[in-house]
Specification:
Elements lengths: L1 H12 L17 E2 L10 H17 L14 H13 L6 E3 L3 H12 L8 E5 L4 H14 L5 E4 L9 H6 L5 E7 L11 H10 L3 E5 L11 H4 L3 E4 L14 E4 L44 H17 L1 H22 L6 E2 L12 E4 L3 H10 L2 E2 L1 E3 L3 E4 L8 H16 L15
Parallel strand pairs: 1-11, 3-4, 3-5, 5-6, 6-7
Antiparallel strand pairs: 2-8, 7-8, 9-10, 10-13, 12-13
Helix pairs in contact: 1-12, 2-9, 3-9, 4-5, 10-12
């Protein structure tokens, strides 16, 4: 194992992003590998939240328009910062709502069904909340059987060709994940968008497991819409406000869920009973924004701007490649399956390993200071994050996993998930 440690230390010495690790709160002897579920708190995020609280203390209600971070425009300000990460225009991106609410808001607004073309294409591996939202929308529109799920040939990944084969004249809209939340597969978003538009279909993506770890060029690819959470790779904190992208060509559509913060800001406080829809992405807001749930993003997104998404992606791929290579080498005698695609262009920011005793392995890892997460029925997700994980973190994670397998330490734990996996 010594040669693996030396290799990790050599890689860390050459890491241009290593300086960011000290900006995050990491526990003693903890190797945090769950940033694809909840990113860690950073000092910049903490400070920006404290700054916004200070604005409340100093300005009271005038904090909506005074100070360096006026609350009235904070959703748009953070949207502008996220636009740089996903390759979109500032007026097309907004911090608002949650991922699920943004699915409801966006799909209900852009979905224009007819009896001949009313189906919504999703996939068999998507996160449940997305499926619940789409099904409820179809139910409300009177098309309860309108959901079409693209099947997976292996239970872990999706074929681009299979997705395209399901794009027929009955499909009105497509909603897919950019990165599959289990296997970590990256979908071919540009190609899928091109093929969807050739058939007159609107297409959007759930970016929850890609934003902050995988670069995007949504405007260049002509993606119609996207939504995401900000508490995973963006490190916005538990329950931090979601993000939304709507291509400007759709801004003239009457938004479905109307609320006073979707009103034109110039007339919002006229308090008229006729909705004056904002001319840009702001129209997709509903109620008063959750200021303290957005404030940490002001700090954390500055780090992304400074570090650069291309550099983050490069290190992320190197971390996951190092982890998979080491697992192959030192755990070859055990029944551990690396599910995540090996090709860099098809791999997101986490890896998925499978084993019949996965829940027990997950618990044993946590007892040894490694924090991953379990996914039923028999998988462990491990996410080395570019901004705060080192190659030595990866080494120790795999070394501890080897210790657990060598000594069958997982047998000390029940092989089933907790209430929260």
């Amino acid at each position: 194992m010594k040669e693996w440690l030396e290799l990790a230390q050599k890689k860390d010495a050459q890491d241009a992003l290593a300086k960011y690790k000290k900006e995050f709160y990491l526990g003693e002897a903890v190797h945090y590998m769950d940033g694809n579920s909840l990113g860690l708190m950073s000092r910049p995020a903490e400070q920006s939240l404290l700054d916004v609280m200070e604005d409340w203390k100093q300005h009271g209600i005038d904090g909506w328009t005074r100070g360096d971070r006026p609350w009235f425009y904070m959703s748009e300000k953070i949207g502008e910062m996220m636009a740089q990460i996903i390759g979109a225009e500032r007026h097309e991106v907004l911090a608002t709502n949650s991922t699920t609410i943004n699915i409801h808001q966006t799909v209900r607004t852009l979905y224009q069904p007819t009896d001949e073309r009313h189906k919504i294409l999703v996939d068999d591996l998507n996160f449940p909340s997305d499926i619940y939202a789409v099904q409820s929308i179809l139910d409300d529109y009177g098309y309860p059987d309108g959901m079409v799920k693209v099947p997976s040939h292996d239970g872990h990944t999706l074929s681009t060709d299979t997705i395209i084969e399901h794009m027929d004249e009955s499909v009105a809209m497509i909603l897919l994940p950019s990165v599959l939340y289990r296997s970590g597969q990256v979908l071919e978003m540009e190609k899928l968008t091109e093929k969807a538009h050739e058939k007159g279909i609107l297409i959007g993506f759930d970016l929850c497991h890609s934003i902050g770890s995988v670069p995007h060029q949504l405007k260049e690819w002509d993606v119609d819409f996207a939504m995401w959470c900000t508490y995973k790779h963006l490190n916005g904190g538990p329950g931090s406000v979601g993000g939304l992208y709507i291509h400007e060509k759709h801004h003239d559509v009457g938004v479905s869920l109307k609320g006073w913060f979707g009103n034109n800001k110039e007339t919002q406080f006229d308090m008229g009973h006729t909705f004056d829809q904002a001319p840009d992405i702001s129209q997709y807001q509903v109620g008063t924004p959750h200021i303290f749930s957005m404030a940490p993003l002001l700090g954390t997104l500055e780090m992304f701007q400074e570090a650069g998404m291309e550099n983050i992606r490069k290190k992320s791929l190197e971390l996951t490649d190092f982890m998979m290579t080491m697992i192959d080498a030192v755990l070859e005698d055990y029944d551990i399956e690396v599910v995540t695609p090996r090709e860099p262009e098809h791999r997101g920011g986490h890896i998925l390993i499978g084993h019949p005793q996965a829940a027990g392995i997950n618990a044993a890892l946590k007892s040894k200071g490694v924090i991953p997460d379990f996914r039923a029925p028999s998988y462990v997700r491990i996410a080395p994050v570019a901004l705060y994980n080192s190659f030595e973190d990866v080494y120790h994670t795999v070394a501890i996993l080897k210790e657990i397998m060598d000594n069958r330490l997982y047998e000390a734990y029940e092989n089933r998930r907790g209430v929260i996996a």
